[in-house]
Amino acid sequence: LMRPLQGCRGRGVVVGTVTLCLAAGWALQTPGGVSLVVPQPNINATVAQNILLSVEYSCRGVATIEWKHVSSWGTTSIVEWRSGNYVNISTVYKDRVTAFENGSIQLRNVGMRDAGYYFVTVTEEHGTSAYGTIIVNVYEIIYEDLHFVAVLFAFLAAVSAILICFMWLCNKSLHLFQKKTTHKLTASTTEEIELETIEC
Q1: 99-134 pLDDT, tens digit each
Q2: Based on the domain organization, do 42 and 122 belong to the same domain?
Q3: What is one process in the GO biological process aspect for this record (predicted)?
Q4: Do 185 and 149 belong together in one domain?
């Protein structure tokens, strides 16, 4: 009674192994899933610059691409589209984003609030997904800081020049005052000497 059951179990193991091998072979032969490449994972930009968040994806079927921005101000959905179909751009980014067929987006006129993490998700119609991240750093334009320093330096130089002129005028006035006082003292001393001489 036990032998037929063992025989069935042995056949089940063989059938299972063959099925598993066939499935693995089919999976290896069929190009499946989604692949996503992010050539530039870090981007440095200055205020008011246009930047390209570049990616390249490939998949067997129709894919849905979605971009999100995460920063200290929160998470914002930027754009979502289906290859060959609709493009849904968030109202916050309506006039600033262009989407490309390869999954990339261009962000125009960046500001300090655009710094942060940009997450892209590519989802195939069968449910397979691939993810990518790009870090964007946004800096103030350097020449504006230099302009401020130059204006401040010019202002301080002008104030210093005015103070120097004022001190020079004060010194000149004091010198003239001392001369007049010395002249008066000399004149009064001479008069006293003359009076003493007359009296004598």
Answers
A1: 999 999 999 999 999 999 999 999 998 889 999 999
A2: yes
A3: positive regulation of excitatory synapse assembly
A4: yes
